[in-house]
Amino acid sequence: xxxAAVRKATAERLLDVYHRLYAAYGRQHxxxxxxxxxxxxxxxxxxxAAWTNVEKAIANLRTAGVLSPEGLLKVSLDELxxxxxxxxxxxxxxxxxxAFVEMLFGRHGGRLEALFALPLPALRQELxxxxxxxxxxxxxxxxxxxxxxxxxxxxxxxxxxSRLGLEPAxxxxxxxxxxxxxxxxxDVQLFNEYHALIDHHAxxxxxxxxxxxxxxxxxxxxxxxxxxxx
Length: 230
Ligand code: SF4
Description:
Blueprint lengths: L1 H24 L10 H10 L5 H13 L5 H6 L2 H7 L6 H19 L3 H5 L3 H9 L6 H11 L9 H10 L8 H11 L4 H17 L26
Helix pairs in contact: 1-11, 1-12, 2-3, 2-9, 5-6, 8-9, 10-12
């Protein structure tokens, strides 16, 4: 009974934060890509990289005619590393892209639709078992490319919500994800928009040195009410 009450209170606070962010910033139109495969490529390339540099790398792949599962399978690793150079860690990222398409052809006939037809837990397991895909990248692919309801956790999420005073007992990816997943309805559009709004807020207002004056979450923020900066 007590657990249900805590979950209900958390759900109300999470939805309240969502509505405040949405009212302040509006729709974010994520993920900015032309196709689900481009989302996958972007999710791998954006690891430790600014999105503007990822866009340059994706433009290189498109111009070279290899922005497809077949293209990334056939191009040499050296050439692939050269093309994704703007995204940084280019040798490692070339290997990660190659590992993804090798998994796709080795286990799903090279068809993204076949991979995405897996039930969510099996899809997540398949992605995480692939070289270079961690939990955050897997969840980004599942939510933004496959269109299935998994909540993406990143450093921005942890920063904003720990400052708000809304955090799980354990600081693990699974605990953070469960805080959102257990409280919110499994709604793809809600999860899509919420994650995008959190990232926008963390990049523009709740930065390392937060700009609390005029913040849309000020009224519900523990830090703004005198908590310690984290
Ligand atoms: S009030 Fe400050 S710490 Fe709280 S969410 Fe806004 S910017 Fe972040």
